[in-house]
Request: fold
Amino acid sequence: MIAKIITNIILIISLAIAQIALISGLPGIISGLNLVLVVLIFILGFSGLDFAVWWAVGIGFFMEIFSFLPFGAYILSLSLTVIAANFLLDYFFTNRSLYSFLALTGLATVIYELIINFFILIFTEINSSASIADSNFWLSLLERAGLNLLSAFIIYYIIYFLGRSLKPVFLIKKY
Reply:
């Protein structure tokens, strides 16, 4: 039990460090990748809501340390996103197929970006560049969603080839 907790804490810290130090420092649109959110969606899909919320709180706490937003913005946004994704997973996406994970990742990206930008809008200047009414916000959201979908696709197939517990469902029409 203690080893499991320590392993999860080490993995949470490693993922937070990778997101903050590695991914956000990459050039161009690649820095918009939110690996934390993609991993949380996979944890939600495989382990359930309780485990995913604990991971969201843990990763949110470590991301808060390096954030200029008020304390709790990342914790709340990640937790609310995981809860909303769980609702979608329970009531709209019934299986653990590739399509389900891609749709869930895309919707979770939109939900997360709206929540975190709501915090930015509340706690920073109104004339900030993070305005939701700005067209650059929606283009940036589309780029981030595309990067998250690509990373979810890659992670899904890595898990598929390593474990063979997932089934990538392709709809084929037989004549």
Q: What stands out?
A: The radius of gyration is 17 Å. The helical segments are 2-22, 35-47, 49-65, 73-91, 98-123, 135-163. Residues 2-163 form one domain. The CA atoms of residues 56 and 79 lie 6 Å apart.
